[in-house]
Amino acid sequence: MTLASPSRPPRTPARVYRQTLWLLTSRDLRVRYSTSFLGYLWSVLDPLVMAVIYWFVFTQIVDRAIGAEPYIVYLLAGLLPWTWFNGAVGDSTRAFIKDAKLVRSTRLPRSVWVARIVLSKGVEFVLAIPVVAIFAIVYGAQLTWGVLWLPLAVVLQAVLTLGLGLVIAPLVVFFRDLERAVKLILRFLFYASPIIYGLADLPDGLDVWASFNPLAGIISLYRASFFPEEVEPRAVIVAAAMSLLALGAGALVFRRTVRAVLKEI
To answer: From residue 27, how far is each of 20, 61, 116, 122 by CA, in Å?
Structure first.
């Protein structure tokens, strides 16, 4: 009598989705840095160079009255999340166009092509966090209880970015000019978000309007690790609500357009 070999349990669609998402993300990261000597450090250099420039301008040239000390840590705590957001939203405009053949041939949910961009940029963000820690040590910034807000900040940003990506990725297929429009909007949003300044630095009344920018609440949560007074409850509540709204709208738009997208590409 022969014993039948135990069969493997069937993989659930969710498990297959997660495995494929990670495979695509790791492939993106390997391809991006395979021919680069510095590797992932290039993802750190961009926000680091920007932080040094703004630090020099606002501390050595202009009589600065914004942010908090040490200002370089304050800047990096805002610039690193922005780099994740900017890169993921910008790359979402090419999520389907860049890999059109694979998108058409795969039987996986097409949302994976947007999710892998958000995840790969998120991995780069996590790998860049030690840079903030190094500057914090050098400049004597004290880690506070506000670091407990960090997981919430990451989750809210991931939800917000994924939701926007699910809206942008399919619409760009039909309206190619949207890619350039997104770049312009991101450029404006950088200065409209409390990255080189804080909500408290804005004039009375303007800070209320600025808090309706979901990035305002999210960035305040990141900065809470070293500057707990930066957390603005109203902005955080708005960020949470708008992030969930963006994800819901993204799922709805994506579901209604995905078939037309497959025909178009």
So the answer is: 10, 43, 10, 14
Q: How far apart are CA 209 and CA 189, in angstroms?
A: 14
Long-range interactions of 138-146: CB distance < 8 A, separation 24+: 139/70, 139/72, 139/73, 140/70, 141/70, 141/73, 141/226, 142/226, 143/225, 143/226, 144/224, 144/225, 144/226, 144/227, 144/228, 145/228, 146/223, 146/224, 146/225, 146/226, 146/227, 146/228, 146/231
* Domain chopping of the chain, boundaries: 37-264
The whole-number pLDDT of residue 217 equals 95
- Give the per-residue pLDDT at 35: 62
Crossing angle of helices 150-174/214-223, nearest 10°? 150
pTM metric for this prediction: 0.86
